[in-house]
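EI: anyone free to look at a 224-residue chain?
SC: sure, send it
EI:
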Amino acid sequence: MDALYALADKMGLDLPVNLERIFVVEALLEAFEEDSAERKVSGNDAAHIIEKKYSGSELDEIDASLDAAPYIASRYNETIIHVIARDPEWAFVFWDVKDDLFEELRASANFSHLFLRVIRDPRSGDKQGLSFEVSVGDEDARWYLHLPDDDSSYKVALYARLGSKSRLLAKSSVLHIPRALISDKLSDLDKSASKLAFLSGLASLEIMPLPDHHPSRILGGSIS
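SC: here you go
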């Protein structure tokens, strides 16, 4: 963690203290991707001038600083799975399987593939518990999942398909997805929130409810 925070400081990231490791790593990866995108020149003359102006000096110093920073491993050879909410409809899932366990699975004649099982907590409001599966490749390590309902709790499990059976490898902690909208009915809000909504004039707006959609669909419906 000290090495991760040292790298974040070198990159100019102001991260809160005592973050979990997965969130620190995610922030660093996003910063690296943004830096790479900004450094790519897409035919813009001004960008070419800036690139030539700083080549061999400031940019080289930045590259040298990043190269000298503590190394971030792409994986830690452990069997884990984590899920992070991106927004009320999408979640980012990433996982890993220990090398010896993966070799054991591949050596089995019944092994066919890995898959994710998305499970909605039946205690999420009055909605029935449901689950659906998403097949992933052996080389995959991350995936964006479209979730069927907002304001619900989910967990994601990593399984191996072995013939007609499946083997649980890892499961994530429970993740609560926030509401996409404040509420279908203002009366469902608590007293203080309902008062604020009334003062905002929200009750006078004609807001169409989102259409139902099946969880197996990649994209949900849109508001007409």
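EI: The chain has three domains: 2-68, 80-177, 186-224.
SC: 👍
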